[in-house]
Design a protein that fits this description.
heterodimer; A: about 475 residues; 11-stranded mixed β-sheet; 10-stranded mixed β-sheet; globular; B: about 250 residues; alpha/beta; 6-stranded mixed β-sheet; 4-stranded antiparallel β-sheet; 10 helices; about 40% helix
Chain lengths: ~475, ~250
């Protein structure tokens, strides 16, 4: 059937849809990493002395650490950390009163991404802290949020304007010495988002940040710190696309969440970074440390992620359940296609009494890819009546791909109840034929079946994000059944 | 409507259909009966375009088109519907969503606009009554956790929704108790019209008490060895298949 083949070819040769490069001039730090690089970054950002010291301390510790290469189920060439630019900022540093003053090239980039600020401003009711490369360019809805006492700004601004909050919480969940990439991030982090929701305030809109890696050979080192004070609620969205590149790009972000008594944080991610081409060349290395702490009683942290991008992913959004009756949740869809590799999962550390955690992980592997779930459920001695439920499903789309599960369970309290369920299935020819027989072609059928498979996770996403995620799943798996 | 000429087909190099000839006009109901392994289900799979069935000889015309050249989804869009002997489960995909996707794919193929949510719901309401399908089932995942009878009723519900020109019922009566059988048959009877034809594949005559066919064919060893009217089914019921086997040797 020639027509069908044409469609298939079109899908198979489909290039990464967000692989454009915008021509904004940028200012770079010299290539490589040394104390001088860190001083350069700190100076560029007009940081106070304590921040520089904090970075340098992390850097000195990083020098003593080794890159983790043996335990993740990943293979990639060694990274030369001296061949990376650690800082790049758009040259025209924006301090605008209106969008008219913004570099038109930058606005066009936003439009290509479908997140034009004026549209966001006008229509969506979402405050966007858009990050191009490393510097926050424009923050919207700030006034409206500040009326409620909510702080939502770039990390650099927070360092200058809210040093006490930053000092109190920075590194409190992910200490600089936590792991190799967290230490690296602590030394060279360029920018990111800071958010504080005061006592008893329910943030009235979804807070959202779009990340974008834009400069060839620029490592992106985002730092996010989100604090929900007693009784506060916030839903935070993080979504990313990146232009295509031949060289591998390193991304090592750190996200820290702090939930005080009765607070709730919902953190949703849709990740669509350049995964490399069909032969596995290029693509982003995504080595992220994301962790939240339920510090107060009855607090709750919920991670939801839909991961379709990156050549190599190393990522375990985790919860430390310190407060009594606190709740941790992790809902994840991880898709790998072609030669992508993902080693991802979560850690649920139960410390407080009557703490509860839920893990729902859905892996989808296609092409020649490898998809691993790695999760730890730790019930500590004092965690009376802790509960965990883990469900870990893998869906295989070809017979050349791999799905792996590495669950770790450590229980030090006899009253704990830990459940683990796992399934592996292959997308069925019978299912596809059934759809065909009802007039639905293979591409649509796969989208339907995969969306059904991921439903539990997609249901956790805010509405507009869920729609985006669904489309992303379809695009990521086009032409992948074999 | 449908004309099959000297159709031969193999599965894994083994010839199963050995020259089928069959002509079906609009509005006719044809029953195809036969013992196990005679090729009944192979015939329905070949007509629907299932993978793994190789047509080695013959032609099939469906509404003036060469059916065998069409992809399975285009056969469905042209108006060929197969009610599965073993309906497939699709976890997490609601029946409604599945049917809406299917219906809109068919409409797009015909150059029609997508159906509005309001019209679609009205259609669901109307057609689910036809097979007394619980409205809860419409919202559940496709066939997941359905009983045998519910699955078969769901097939007829889909038939009603998609409004095909030719419907093939592949052993729809298998696994049904007498009440479910009656409901399914009533549904099918209401869907009979001068524009729609049916092929009813069945092992037993029981179903044909409720859905009275215009013609009955006996398939044996990959060929139609006997054709007649509904009386032939009764004769088969009485005598079994052995006398046919004896006749054809």
């Amino acid at each position: 059937m020639p027509e069908e083949n044409e469609i298939l070819d079109e899908h198979l040769s489909g290039e990464y849809k967000y692989g454009f490069v915008s021509n904004i001039e940028s200012e770079k730090a010299p290539i490589g990493l040394s104390e001088d690089t860190i001083r350069f970054i700190s100076q560029k950002k007009n940081e106070p002395e304590w921040m520089l010291e904090w970075r340098l301390k992390a850097f000195r510790h990083w020098l003593t650490m080794k890159e983790p290469t043996h335990w993740p189920h990943l293979t990639y060439p060694n990274i030369d950390f001296q061949q990376i630019y650690y800082y790049a900022a758009p040259k025209q540093k924006p301090q605008y009163n209106s969008l008219d003053e913004v570099d038109p090239e930058l606005l066009r980039t936003f439009e290509k991404l479908g997140i034009s600020l004026d549209e966001q401003k006008r229509l969506s009711g979402i405050a966007v802290d858009a990050v191009i490369d490393s510097v926050s360019v424009k923050t919207t809805f700030r006034e409206k949020l500040s009326e409620m006492g909510i702080i939502f700004c770039s990390f650099s601004e927070a360092v200058r304007e809210y040093p006490d909050l930053v000092k109190q919480y920075l590194g409190s969940v992910v200490p600089p010495a936590d792991n190799f990439y967290a230490a690296l991030n602590s030394a060279v982090f360029s920018d990111g988002s800071f958010c504080y929701i005061p006592k008893g305030v329910r943030c009235p809109m979804e807070l959202s940040t779009y990340f974008r890696i834009n400069e060839a050979n620029t490592g992106q080192f985002e730092r996010t710190l989100l604090i929900a004070d007693e009784g506060a609620y916030v839903s935070y969205l993080e979504g990313c696309t990146a232009p295509m590149r031949d060289e591998n790009q390193l991304h090592a972000a750190v996200v820290e969440l702090v939930a005080l008594k009765d607070a709730e944080i919902k953190y949703s991610t849709v990740q669509n970074w350049y995964p490399g081409n069909k032969e596995g060349k290029g693509g982003i290395y995504n080595f992220v440390t994301k962790r939240g702490i339920c510090l107060g009683d009855y607090s709750k942290i919920s991670w939801t992620q839909v991961e379709t991008g990156s050549a190599v992913t190393w990522k375990y959004p985790s919860c430390i359940l310190k407060g009594n009756y606190s709740i941790g949740e992790f809902y994840s869809v991880a898709v790998t296609n072609n030669y992508q590799q993902a080693d991802t999962g979560t850690k649920m550390i139960h410390i407080g009494k009557n703490t509860k955690s839920t893990i729902v992980s859905k892996g989808i592997s296609a092409g020649f890819s490898n998809n691993s779930y790695r999760g730890l459920v730790a019930i500590q001695k004092g965690a009376e009546n802790a509960r965990n439920y883990t469900q870990c499903d893998s869906l295989l789309m070809s017979d050349k791909c791999g799905a792996h599960t590495f669950p770790y369970i450590e229980v030090k309290n006899k009253t704990a109840k830990v459940e683990h369920e796992a399934t592996t299935s292959k997308i069925g020819e019978d299912q596809l034929f059934y759809c065909n027989q009802r007039g639905i072609n293979n591409e649509k059928a796969i989208a339907l079946i995969v969306n059904g498979y991921c439903k539990e996770v997609l249901n956790q996403l805010p509405m507009e994000f869920a729609v985006e995620a669904q489309k992303l799943l379809e695009v990521s798996l086009e032409g992948s059944v074999g | 409507m449908l004309e099959i000429r000297n159709l031969k087909a193999s599965v894994e190099e083994k010839e199963i259909l050995k020259g089928i000839n069959l002509k079906i006009n609009a509005g006719e109901v044809h029953a195809i009966m036969g013992p196990n392994g005679s090729g009944k289900s192979t015939l329905s799979s070949v007509l629907a375009g299932r993978d793994g069935y190789e047509v080695t000889e013959g032609e099939v015309d469906f509404l003036q088109k060469n059916l065998l050249e069409l992809s399975p989804e285009d056969r469905a869009r042209e108006g060929l519907f197969l009610a599965f002997q073993y309906p497939i489960e699709i976890p997490g995909v609601s029946n409604i969503n599945f049917l809406k996707t299917a219906l809109n794919e068919i409409r797009t193929y015909k150059g029609l606009e997508a159906i509005s949510a309001k019209d679609f719901l009205a259609l669901v309401k109307e057609k689910s009554q036809l097979v007394e399908l619980d409205s809860k089932l419409a919202n559940r995942s496709v066939n997941e956790g359905f009983s045998g009878g519910e699955k078969k009723r769901n097939e007829i519900f889909q038939l009603a929704m998609l409004n095909p020109k030719l419907a093939i019922l592949d052993e729809t009566d298998s696994g049904l108790d007498i009440d479910a059988l009656r409901i399914v048959a009533n549904g099918v009877n209401k869907l009979r019209s001068k524009d729609r034809s049916f092929i009813i594949i069945t092992h037993y005559q029981r179903l044909l008490d409720y859905i009275v066919p215009d013609f009955v064919h006996v398939l044996y060893n990959g060929k139609i060895v006997k054709s007649g009217t509904k009386e032939l089914a009764l004769e088969l019921e009485e005598k079994g298949y052995d006398w046919i086997k004896a006749e054809t040797v």
